[in-house]
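Exercise 7. Given the encoded structure of a 556-residue chain, write a plausible sequence.
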């Protein structure tokens, strides 16, 4: 059995969109010795609640918090068994979560969807990060912030997202005021799962800053919230809780959580964190100038800076938001792997409906041979436009267009979107010298080379297939006192393969020409040249309005 020689271990738990993964890691060197995955029983609730009832309106995405507890009950013991590690050798546990994934609870942390009389009300459930139905509420928050010259709006690139706490909270108030009133807490799932582990309510500085509009020690003022809606004046009080820096100890593992996980009661539980942000430590990407792109269903881009910079359209800049002692800048794309998956599952013909086959065929093309440009907005635009009512587009289709042509154009579109983000950072004074890529998409060699060519930067690859879980384990080691800070733990436990993909000069020049066309389309359809995408979204929503109205009648 591992651990008999006195080695110490930590557990990292990564909560993704569809499943949770537990990873057992050796403290001394970050060696990954055991892992297990548990798929959420309910997945993403986009059609209706688990017990049935009316159809959910468009752009809703909910989850069941019991699925999160099941990850602790199933994946953690299975990972320990896979590692053959004596649980007594485990000194800490850390977790990370998708964000902004948020839920209303009672004062003791009980989710409102678990209160029997509220279970049938959609607004009582967890709102997943890709719940985009709060776009009109985000628009109102942005408009009022600019009208009042609120000082915090520039820290978010001029626009806060429909995915974030305040937009979702305002939607909750205005569509189900009774559930809003019953919600004594409105809490990120990243903090809620820590609450479940140690029976102590805490808030982490990362989600509070990036998703909760907390800047310079405060949330938006009561006057601002009251101007949005008089009933919204108390919203910041629902976000109260001890605010702790990343890598801190939130508390000891409770007896209840020890029974779930098989871990010793009393070990350190690290403060909650975001899946993308913990990955920076796992990828040894904490130094300024090194951007980490965590690529999965969506992509999050994070880069530390020595000082705050206001970058138009970014997700935010937060003091200590990625690691202590630096200003963490974040941007992102709402759809990446999801776009490729959509094409394979919904549009590719029989015989070609696999990523492997389409990649093989697409890789044989010279740059630009397909004659296509795509816009990567299948799930809206997170950065730089911050508008989730936008949609995808492919230009240049002809009767000669083949499935592999479209597939490659979709791959390229996400690289173009990343280049837009990088250029915005650089223009605002935030250096981006190289990229480190993490996530499941790193296995696609064509995609990685496209990113190196489009961005004209070397690409390193994280040396772990489980970047977020490893990052959470690194933070657990710090919380347990094994390392003095996250930087030291990252040096010892993180890993990266440097410069695996280098830009090809010929491809760089060819992609510069295509990128110019992408940027023209991006600005025309995303910056008001033609709002056809928004009009089409309104027509679609009107066509399915009856089911949506039925839901609101039930919950109102």
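Solution.
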């Amino acid at each position: 059995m591992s651990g008999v020689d006195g080695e110490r271990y930590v557990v990292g738990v990564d909560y993704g969109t569809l499943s949770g993964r537990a990873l057992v890691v050796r403290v001394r060197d970050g060696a990954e010795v055991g892992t297990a995955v548990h798929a959420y029983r309910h997945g993403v609730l986009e059609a209706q609640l688990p017990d049935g009832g009316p159809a959910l309106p468009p752009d809703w995405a909910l989850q069941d918090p019991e699925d999160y507890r099941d990850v602790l009950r199933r994946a953690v013991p299975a990972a320990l068994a896979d590692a053959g590690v004596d649980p007594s050798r485990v000194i800490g546990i850390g977790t990370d979560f998708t964000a902004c994934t948020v839920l209303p609870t009672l004062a003791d942390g009980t989710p409102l969807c678990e209160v029997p009389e509220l279970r049938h009300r959609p607004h009582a459930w967890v709102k997943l990060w890709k719940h985009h139905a709060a776009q009109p509420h985000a628009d109102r928050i942005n408009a009022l912030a600019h009208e009042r010259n609120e000082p915090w709006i520039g820290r978010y690139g001029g626009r806060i997202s429909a995915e974030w706490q305040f937009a979702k909270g305002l939607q909750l108030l205005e569509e189900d005021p009774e559930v809003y009133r019953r919600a004594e807490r409105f809490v990120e799932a990243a903090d809620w799962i820590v609450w479940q582990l140690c029976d102590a309510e805490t808030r982490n500085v990362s989600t509070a800053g990036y998703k909760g509009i907390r800047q310079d020690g405060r949330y938006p003022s009561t006057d601002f919230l009251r101007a949005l809606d008089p009933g919204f004046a108390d919203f910041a009080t629902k976000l109260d809780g001890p605010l702790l820096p990343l890598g801190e100890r939130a508390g000891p593992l409770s007896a209840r959580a020890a029974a779930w996980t098989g871990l010793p009661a009393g070990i350190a539980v690290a403060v909650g964190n975001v899946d993308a942000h913990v990955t920076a430590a796992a990828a040894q990407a904490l130094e300024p100038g090194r951007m980490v792109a965590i690529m999965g269903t969506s992509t999050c881009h994070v880069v530390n800076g020595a000082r705050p910079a206001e970058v138009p359209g970014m997700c935010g800049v937060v003091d200590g938001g990625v690691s202590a002692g630096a200003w963490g800048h974040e941007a992102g794309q709402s759809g990446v792997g999801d776009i490729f998956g959509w094409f394979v599952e919904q549009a590719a013909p029989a015989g070609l409906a696999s990523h492997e086959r389409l990649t093989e065929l697409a890789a044989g093309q010279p740059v630009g041979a397909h004659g296509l440009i795509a816009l990567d907005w299948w799930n809206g635009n997170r950065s730089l436009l911050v508008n989730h009512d936008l949609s995808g587009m492919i230009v240049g289709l002809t009767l000669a267009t083949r499935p592999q042509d479209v597939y490659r154009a979709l791959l390229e579109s996400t690289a173009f979107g990343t280049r837009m983000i990088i250029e915005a950072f650089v223009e605002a004074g935030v250096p981006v010298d190289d990229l480190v890529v993490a996530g499941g998409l790193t296995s696609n060699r064509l995609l990685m080379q496209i990113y190196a060519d489009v961005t004209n930067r070397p690409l390193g690859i994280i040396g772990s297939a489980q970047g977020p879980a490893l990052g959470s384990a690194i933070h657990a080691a710090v919380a347990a006192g094994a390392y003095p800070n996250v930087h030291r733990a990252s040096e010892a436990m993180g890993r990266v393969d440097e410069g695996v993909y280098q830009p090809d000069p010929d491809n760089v020049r060819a992609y510069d020409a295509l990128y110019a066309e992408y940027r023209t389309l991006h600005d025309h359809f995303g910056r008001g040249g033609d709002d056809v995408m928004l009009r089409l979204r309104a027509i679609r929503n009107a066509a399915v309005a009856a089911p949506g109205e039925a839901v609101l009648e039930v919950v109102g």
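Remark. Residues 152 and 368 are 42 Å apart (CA to CA). Students should compare their own answers with the one above.
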